[in-house]
Amino acid sequence: MKIRSALTALALLLAPGVAVVGSAGDAFAVTKVSHATATSMFRQVGITWSSSGNCSDRNNSTCTSFEQLNLATAQGAQTLKGATGCALNITGGTETGHASGTYSHWNGYKLDYAKSTCVTNYIKNTFTYIGLRGDGAPQYKSGSGNIYADEGNHWDVLYYNCGGC
């Protein structure tokens, strides 16, 4: 426990502005990006985004926000775009209104993508089916460990890492 406390303190001293998150026994740094940085990253590779409210306010559930998105999550989207060659449209980011938890949208670990035949075929033909999530959504795991859940009208993707960026 003393080692974890020391690592956390050291990370905070050496990397101001970087959030340190973890669970029992784990201490690792997560770099957060702004909405502007994330949208720039997405534009660079041709990823689009949309919201039912045509907005980006993190505190409005009808918006699609990338404020406080994990850098690895943004990079994971770029990796997916490059790997699939498919059109990618993000429909959910870090805005309020999603399920809570450590590895949640709000905490920067998840993105939602609009369904398309191209993306669906890539996920189902490339990743490993790992069973149903607690809510019944079929899940697929990439080689890098990220989880893709088919929520019916969109893909809910949990990024533990950048997917091999």
Q: What is the strand and helix layout of this fold?
A:
Elements: H1 2-14, E1 19-21, E2 28-30, E3 32-33, H2 35-45, E4 48-49, E5 69-70, H3 71-84, E6 89-92, E7 110-114, H4 117-126, E8 128-132, E9 138-141, E10 147-150, E11 154-158
Parallel strand pairs: 4-6
Antiparallel strand pairs: 1-2, 3-5, 6-7, 7-11, 8-9, 9-10, 10-11
Helix pairs in contact: 2-3
Describe this structure in words.
With 165 residues, the chain is α+β, with helices and mostly antiparallel strands. The chain contains four helices and eleven strands. The chain has helices at 2-14, 35-45, 71-84, 117-126, and strands spanning 19-21, 28-30, 32-33, 48-49, 69-70, 89-92, 110-114, 128-132, 138-141, 147-150, 154-158. It has a seven-stranded mixed beta sheet with strand order 4-6-7-11-10-9-8, covered by helices on one side. The chain has a two-stranded antiparallel ribbon with strand order 1-2. A hairpin with a 3-residue loop joins strand 10 and strand 11. Helix 2 (35-45) runs parallel beside helix 3. The chain is globular and about 35 Å long. The model is unreliable at 1-27 (pLDDT under 50).
Question: What is the compact description of this entry?
Answer:
The chain has 165 residues and is an alpha+beta fold. The protein is built from four helices and eleven strands, in the order αβββαββαββαββββ. The protein has helices spanning 2-14, 35-45, 71-84, 117-126, and strands at residues 19-21, 28-30, 32-33, 48-49, 69-70, 89-92, 110-114, 128-132, 138-141, 147-150, 154-158.
